[in-house]
Amino acid sequence: SVMLPCPRPNTCVDGGCARGATGYLCKQCADGFYVRPTGECEACPKGSNGLFATFLLILIGCALAAFALILLSAKRSGTGATLDAVRLRSIPPSVSLGLVTLQILGVLGSAPVRWPKSAQNALSGFNVFSLDISLFASECSLTDFARKYTLNMWLPVIFVALVVAAWALFTLLRRMLVQLTRFPEISLVAALQSVLFMIGPVAYLPLSRAVLVLFDCTKLPDGRHYLDANMAVLCFGDSWWRIFPWGFLGLLLYVVAIPGSIGLLLLLNRRELFT
């Protein structure tokens, strides 16, 4: 017999497939299981739909919190949510740096390194700071990788739409309620710029990671390439090409445009920046 290396060490046990793993070289998860960030196949929890709903509620909460911070910055500046107000930090930069550090630790947990199981689980737990929807058993609710990937590409758009909805509601209520007039009027453009500067640096790493998993393929002994993130997906196959446009769009809008937009705004306002 020919011995072949297991592409996912966590799915192979004593020459066979671990619980929940199946297929050629145990590369995919059986029905009723989903791929954890560590690469293992985990049984779908009974309340998987509830977990996914919890993630959506967290997303809504984060959008509302972001708009609340924009309001606080506008009130502190007394001039509305202009670029000057954005520069008045509502959150210490050490918090953003700390979040990015924790996100990097989460990435290390998914790296192709033979960590001890306890260390790998501990590092993967930091993915919660990246709002990794895999932690909420999303594949159990969305049923396949293509739907999960497409949702990942839409999440930033949904987040911005929630912020715009909060801005529209605030603008409407400000005209109706005298109590809200103590907050300066906020323009939509300035609010969106605030979101870019506030959320962009923190969200960049998880967004880039979510986009680039589509292009991370491994060639197996059968001569074909499979996605490292989910080896049930054949790279350059029909299902891969169906979601490729979303991946290419995400590459342009998130991986390239976020740092490009921040850099361009800083360049245009370089003579007006202050510390």
Q: What can you see in these coordinates?
A:
The chain is mainly alpha-helical and 275 residues long. It is built from eight helices and eight strands; from the N terminus they run E-E-E-E-E-E-H-H-H-H-H-H-H-E-E-H. Helix 1 (48-77) runs parallel beside helix 6 (145-176), helix 3 runs parallel beside helix 7 and helix 6 (145-176) packs parallel to helix 8. The chain is elongated.
Order of helices and strands: EEEEEEHHHHHHHEEH
Structural class of the helices, strands and pairings?
Answer: mainly alpha
> Largest sheet, described in full?
2 strands, antiparallel
Order of the strands making up the biggest sheet = 1-2
- Average of per-residue pLDDT values: 83
Fold topology:
Blueprint: E1 12-13, E2 16-17, E3 21-22, E4 28-29, E5 33-35, E6 41-43, H1 48-77, H2 83-87, H3 93-109, H4 117-124, H5 138-142, H6 145-176, H7 188-212, E7 217-219, E8 225-227, H8 238-268
Antiparallel strand pairs: 1-2, 3-4, 5-6, 7-8
